[in-house]
Structure to design on (105 residues):
């Protein structure tokens, strides 16, 4: 019963849209321009109006934490440099087989 009502409504709706296709296109164009304008305002114009209050306070770095991070970076750099020196075998190269001796009978 409900499926028939939905089908009937969709048929009537599509018929109305088809009869007024120019108006529908203008409406969709207007809605897309409105949505584009709102997005432009939100992401381009609005962020430019924000004024940040920058204080003159400097931040302090914990020396122990800084040294810990520096050591980790040096370990990673050392591993990176070691990986550059390794020679890896080529999996696509032809295997080198020793010469086969012929059996004489």
């Amino acid at each position: 019963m409900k499926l028939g009502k939905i089908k009937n409504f969709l048929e009537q709706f599509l018929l109305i849209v088809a009869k007024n296709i120019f108006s529908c296109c203008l409406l969709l164009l207007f809605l897309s321009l409105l949505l584009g304008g709102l997005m432009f305002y939100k992401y381009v114009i609005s962020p430019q109006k924000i004024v940040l209050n920058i204080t003159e306070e400097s931040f302090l770095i914990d020396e122990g934490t800084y040294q810990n991070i520096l050591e980790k970076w040096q370990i990673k750099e050392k591993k990176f440099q070691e990986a550059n020196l390794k020679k890896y075998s080529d999996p696509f190269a032809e295997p080198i087989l020793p010469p086969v001796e012929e059996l004489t009978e």
